[in-house]
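Milestone 3.1: sequence recovery, worked example.
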């Protein structure tokens, strides 16, 4: 069973991101504030759920939450500030969009940077421990998948509809064959035999 809250603050936001390890597409974060009486069967870390269940949970999370926000950060931003900083920035932007402003933030993972002096805790595997982080992980994943399905129409040869930009063998083959697109992260090792430049 996932726990509702970590702190005693009235408005506690959980935040998480999706797409950190992808070769293409944005890194997407979500933040969610849940009410004290929130219950949702099946809600868990999005990686443990099927796409069908995530799609079913998404509207229930949106309707049941006090507030939620989602942010996509582009491959350009990822290349500019690196994926770790982009993941944190995407989560911070979600927090800023929340209304009401949270009194406390719980973050999936072990890295975060303060935003507007709001106290926070980083929780490793938090998406499998706290409902708000699990809810944020589901929103981040479903919104990012939607985005990847949309850009798939533009460049169907990479099959983003299926691999969502992750480094599958098929995705790497397509990069080898067709080169890169504006949606690819140029700072990533797109092909295994690329020489790594320390920029």
């Amino acid at each position: 069973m996932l726990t509702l809250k970590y702190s005693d603050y009235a408005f506690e936001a959980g935040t998480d991101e999706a797409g950190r390890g992808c070769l293409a597409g944005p890194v997407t974060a979500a933040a969610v504030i849940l009410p004290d009486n929130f219950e949702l069967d099946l809600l868990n870390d999005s990686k443990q759920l099927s796409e069908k269940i995530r799609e079913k949970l998404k509207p229930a999370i949106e309707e049941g939450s006090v507030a939620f926000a989602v942010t996509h950060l582009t491959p350009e931003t990822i290349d500019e500030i690196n994926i770790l900083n982009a993941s944190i920035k995407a989560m911070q932007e979600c927090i800023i969009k929340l209304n009401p402003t949270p009194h406390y933030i719980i973050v999936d993972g072990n890295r975060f940077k303060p935003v507007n002096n709001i106290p926070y805790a980083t929780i490793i595997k938090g998406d499998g421990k706290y409902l708000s982080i699990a809810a944020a992980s589901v929103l981040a994943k479903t919104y990012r998948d939607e985005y990847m399905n949309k850009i798939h129409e533009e460049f169907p040869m990479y099959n983003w509809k299926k691999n969502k930009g992750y480094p599958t063998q098929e995705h790497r083959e397509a990069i080898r064959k067709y080169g890169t697109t504006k949606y690819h992260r140029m700072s990533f090792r797109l092909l295994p035999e690329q020489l790594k430049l320390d920029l």
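The mean pLDDT is 95. Residues 45 and 128 are 5 Å apart (CA to CA).
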